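TICKET #2291
ISSUE: user wants both folds in one file
ATTACHMENT 1:
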Amino acid sequence: MFSWVLLIIVLAAFVVLGVWFWGSVFGRGEVLPPLDPDETRRLNQEAVGAGDLDSVQFELVYRGYRPEQVDDVIGRLSEQLKEAEVTIARLSSPKSD
């Protein structure tokens, strides 16, 4: 019975040392540099203008995405929606002769 307990303790020690060694050698992973806010805004506006919403990028912050970037994209999309509604209303209104 004592040999099983000793084996589990030794195995746990090896796991702890292995995880520590692996983390010290390889680290936590590559940290991405922060996005340039002006470049990101320009690229997001181009992507929204082209209708390519898959290309929209937001910088990650502690609790999600950077709010001003999200607000900018939402504002741009709402402008496009208003323009589309005006165009639809203009095209669907009866023409007077």
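ATTACHMENT 2:
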Amino acid sequence: MKKIIIIPILLGTLLVSCSTEDINTDPHSAYTTIPSTLVTNAQKELSDYVNTPSVNENNFRLTMQYWQETTYVEESNYNFTNRNVSNQIYIDNYVNVLNSLVKAKDLINAYQPVPSEVLTWPTIKKNQLAVIDIMQVYTYQNLVDTFGNIPYSQSNQLGNNVAPAYDNGADIYTNLITRLQQDIASIDVTGDLNSASDDFSSADLFYSGDLDSWKTFGNSLLLKLGIAIADSNPTLAQQTATTAINNGVITSSADDCKLQYLTGSPNYSPIYENVKANNRNDFVGGKTLIDYMNANNDTRISKYFKPVGTTGNYIGQVIGQPASFSQFSAPGTFAYTTTTPGILMNYTEVAFYLTEASARWGIGGSATTNYTNAITSSFADWGISSDAAAYIAAHPYNSANWKQSVGTQAWVAMYNQPLTSWNFWRRLDFPALQPATAATINSVPVRMAYPASEYQTNAANVAAASSAIGGDLLTTKIFWDKF
């Protein structure tokens, strides 16, 4: 992946705080600018949401039992209402990300090319719209995976519809698959992304305008969509995965989709922001993960966590219980580093999808090879490639119980990708996580409840959605979570 720095002045202008929770209200004053500035803003907002450990908006490191809160343990015990977490998830995704991308599309469609680019503009336009739409597909999939039925066909109309209907999650997935295939086909890698008035490539924080990389990412996202519905719609799932693999998915970390954060505020890592910059010691390692890694001689533990004091020991707190920060392992150095990249999708994740595709349908190569590649990639991600072979030898792929092999090892490997980890766990049902000790429900959450703001401003539609999915509960499975 090509790297591009974030432009502090630009982001300082664009990162406008939101004063409303209405997902269709236009919150930005910069919508008269060029499209690429809105794309930059959307990419930064998307990466921030996916990667932040803020208890106000993304608690999946807690849900997946990687971390445990030290003092205020409500979110570790699945109380997400006190902080209106779902409200913030809607704002992060519908307002900060999707509204920006919708307006960027509007500006592109309204653009009148100068005479010198009349011939090249159709290809440039097509490429710009495809790249933007791929990001929209990624964001909508996250929302479906989090809530189930969501506003989709009537969403993000920028004030034209303040009470959007909720679409069926399975139908949204089907549409996203079709939409993404069209996006991938639309990308002309012989063309460009830059118009006479807009250096779109320089504003692209993920791939610096590299169209081959965007195409590869699109196919990898298509594979993710296919794998997600493997149990709910196996025919479409296999067709989708086959298409993605045949077209070419991510095959090395060089193609990872990530945002490189900078050293200074507001452009440093959101993990650093919440773990170090706020001068609070709010998180320690969770006992579930640390005990597993200790028992299995997993050397990644030295990257994931810090040892307690001078003992050299890694100790995690019981999930749901308060913790003295000094007595348990803090998150590793990566969390205290300003420039830790924000991961949207990486080769490790894709290699686990390929393992699933191999195990389920016999496509995408050998399951054993893909499993080995996934774990090897994870160790490489943390700078300890030489330790991978011994770990894999001690934890070989088990074709007779491949869900346990993939589910458990993906859970460990996706430590810094908690949203993705949550999907693996719900789909494969491994590892066998137990609910927090003082949990508000009797199981680990399998979805987030709809925002209180929706009940206030869009009551009829959210009530209908709640009824359609079987109740607006943390324990209500979304459509693809069949087992």
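RESOLUTION: both attachments delivered.
EXTRA DETAIL ON ATTACHMENT 2: The chain has one domain: 8-265+341-469.
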